Give the backbone structure.
Amino acid sequence: MPPRLRLSREESAQLGALLAFVDERRAQFPSEADGPEQAGWVARVYADDADSLSVNLITLLLFEHGLHRSVAQVSEDLRVYAERNG
């Protein structure tokens, strides 16, 4: 788990189900895209598998896809992604 990432009880309850999909989605992950596109991809693709997808969970899923980003950076990436995609 990335350093300093603390999951709430609700986030922890969702974690196992989300992690179950990482391996099957690994080949689809846009590794050549920039940070906002990668964060947005995780938010879109995993949204159907979660009650809600917090920045903490998106950060952890990015970590599982091989990226080491802080929660603050992922939050900023999601803001930029939202601006780009209205």
About this structure: The chain has a mean pLDDT of 92.
